[in-house]
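Self-study notes.
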Amino acid sequence: MTTRRDFLKRAAAVPAIMMLPTIKWRANYDLHAIAATFCAKDQYPTYDLTRPYVMARHAYATDAMAMCRLLADDADTDPATRRIPTETIDVWERWWTDKGRWFEPPRERLRVDQTGQFCPRCFDHLPDCPTCNGEGERIYGDNYSGASWVGDCKDCRGYGAKLDPSCPDCHGQYFGNFPSVQVVGDKLIAGHQYRRLLRVPGIVFNMGSPARDEPIIWRSDIGLCGLQMPLDPAKVRIA
């Protein structure tokens, strides 16, 4: 369940007409800074999703589980100089729709998934482990024999994060069966991703396709809109 599925490769066979929502924009928000929170923290082997990119007068930010879009006057990002998913607009046009009912997001009420998950409170906030620099592994050695080997960092237990014993949810365990899933309609969103959506001012949801493994659509009154992939319902067991 914690594995990110690259939904850029999972576009549906049934296309939808691309329709931009009517938006009453609020002023005094740094849209680029908010959009940047939807970028990936690390580069993927195929794409560089660590920064927004521009296509056809829109900037996109994605971590392969969610996508955010806003108007942009910048020149298109050159895929020859930066590894970006050239199928982005195709994905957007297949999934985006203004049809259906729009509703305010439900109050956060995380449920426990009975498979191991990263603590949703710690996942986005803990700094890298200073001992292994966030790698989760260290090189160990035997001074007597001169042998060396790579093993899990003992300080972070291989997670790469500086563990926080004061966390009220995981008490420094970081991984286990924690309240980490938000139910929206009949679709499931990872807790840390749901909290990210709630930080978008004036956000509203649309369930989009009724299929449980197809994205939830969202928009806001500050000029941002996007897609959120749900968790695979076959891999989630809610307590």
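Second protein, same conventions, sequence then structure:
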Amino acid sequence: MKAVVVGSMNCLPTEYAILLKKYCNPVIHYYDADEHDTLSNPRIRWGDDSVQVTQGVTIKKIAFHHHLSYLFPWLFHFKLLAQLKSADLILLSGPSISLARWLAGKQVVALAYGNDISLFCNPEWPAMSVSEVTGLKRFIKPFLRYLKSRFVSAQVSGLKSCTHYSYFVPGFDIEIDSLLERLLAGADQPKRLTRYSINIDILEMARFRAPLPPLPECYRILFPVRFSQGNELLGDKGWKLLFDGLKKYKAIAKRKFICICFKKGNYFDAMAYAKAQGIEDVVKWQDVVSFDILIQYYRRSDVVVEQLGTHWIGQGLYAMALGKPVIGRVSTKSQKDFFKESGLLQVENVDQLVAHLSKCESKEYCESTGNKSSQFVRTSANIESEFLQWRLL
């Protein structure tokens, strides 16, 4: 059975491709990330030896076109379409979901991760995306809005043409659930598959090409999340809550500690905020690293602080699988139910964050919490569990 995977958002499609190799041969993965994209480029994530790490999956880069190129797939993506039509099982992510409308009769799964639906399938997105266009381009705003509207229509049509789509458990993201209900109303809608989050096998594949920089021998708090502009809980992913908590925790900490952060996103504002809070001495800034190096940081941390905004706790699941206590925020009842027995240390405010950081000073507490989290992720958040429900292989 030949499988083809297209897309590379957060490198998650790559992880599906790696697992498909257990069931299919050949497996071809086309990624569409920029060469310098540390989040979504699989060759950065796993390094130059990624062919070995990905267990025989053939990884190829496709031409990095603007998403509007998918309005004319016979012109920009005709070679990719030929490969897709020769496959038995197809997984599409990002703009490539729109290609499903050309694949009638095929088993096609949409790997829907965030922007695939909340932007690319949102009828309100074209107007929002051109609202801040200035300069000479402002004269063609109506034309740009028209093109983006056509792209949204193609994306929705592609989603409807899939046989299945993979997304969170209903209730995880209420707004997108509502959008999906509107988009897919009717008897012929694709079947929804419960989305799981990580490939456990990849933790064992991580290859350490370079040593970590020297880290202080103290209580290590790791914050691997991107620093972003925008709304405090959504755009910034709650990082100000972390820094406010560190300020309060610093006054009562019983152990010397350091919080390791990465220069991702708009970290200059975060640096200035840390200085204003008087915590610049306990925040250690590191350059962005590849995935296998990040796994080393997880292994050498005492506690990991994940998303404190309204986003899904995704990257933190790797730390949980490695037996590390993870502090994070879950924002809906469905998410809270899912993580109820996970060992995730849930927070809503600064006081709860400080309380968790204080408890994690204890090595015994960290070990018991981490063991509970590891067992949960390996049984309840493993992508392979999703494969078993597909019944497509």
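Instructor comment on the second fold: The longest strand covers residues 257-262.
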